[in-house]
Amino acid sequence: MWTYGKRRILLMSAVFFISMAGLTADAAESSVAKEMAEPKERAGDEGKSSETAQSASPAQTGEAVGMPNPVVQYPVFEDARNAVGFTPLYVPRKSGYRCDYIAVIDGNLAELRFSRKWEPEVRLTVRTYLRQQGEEVRDISGVYGAEWRQETIGNVPVVTARLENRTYLAAWTVGEYTFSAMLEGAAYEAFRALLSDELLDLSVHYY
C-alpha cells in the first residue's frame, strides 16, 4: 500500500509539474507575442505623430510664417462686397442659378460660384475685378493656356474660349471693371444665351 501510494504521489507530482511547465510555456509564448505586437502599435502611433507633425509644419501653414491666406470665403454677399469695396457681378435666381460660394482673392478680386438645382453638373464661376487708375487690363479668369477668340456680343467686345469637357470661358471689360465667366457641363448654346442675356446685359447696365 505504501509503495502504491508513493507511486501515486510521484505520478501526481509529475503530472503537476508537466501541467505547470505547459502553463509556463503558454504564458511565455503569450508574453513574447505581446511584445512582438507592441512595437507595431508603437510604430503606428509614432507614424501618426509624425504625420500630425508634418501636417502642422510651419512651411505648409500660412499663419505660421506670417503669410495671409489669399482666398477668404464669405457666407454673406454683403460681407464680400464690403471687403472688396464694390459690388461683384451677381447672377439673379430668376436665371435658374443659385450662388453657393462667395470668396475674395488677394483682397481685391471677387469670385462667385453658382449651380443649377435641376442640373448639378452645370457650374458657373463669375469673377469681378476693379482696376486701379492707370492699371492695364489683365486676365483674371485663372485659366492658363486658353485659346482666346475675339468677338462682339451685344455691342460688347468679348474674348471667349472653348475648353475641354463642355467648358466655356469668357472675359470682358466695362469701364474700370474686368469680368470673367466660366460655365462647366453645359451646351455651347446655353453658354451663349447666359453670356448675352444675363452677364453682359447686367454688367453694361450696372457698371
Largest sheet: 8 strands, antiparallel
Total strand segments: 8
Mean pLDDT across all amino acids:
77
Helical fraction equals 25-40%
Cα-to-Cα separation, first versus last residue: 120 Å
State the secondary-structure class.
alpha+beta
Number of helices: 3
Order of helices and strands: HEHEEEEEEEH
**Widest β-sheet, arrangement of strands:** 1-2-3-4-8-7-6-5
Tell me, briefly, the overall form: globular
Radius of gyration: 35 Å
How would you sum up this structure, described in words?
- The protein is of the alpha+beta class and 207 residues long.
- Helices cover 39% and strands 29% of the residues.
- It contains three helices and eight strands.
- The chain has helices spanning 2-55, 77-84, 188-206; strands at 71-73, 97-105, 109-116, 119-130, 149-153, 156-163, 167-174, 177-184.
- It has an eight-stranded antiparallel β-sheet.
- Residues 1-64 have low confidence and may be disordered.
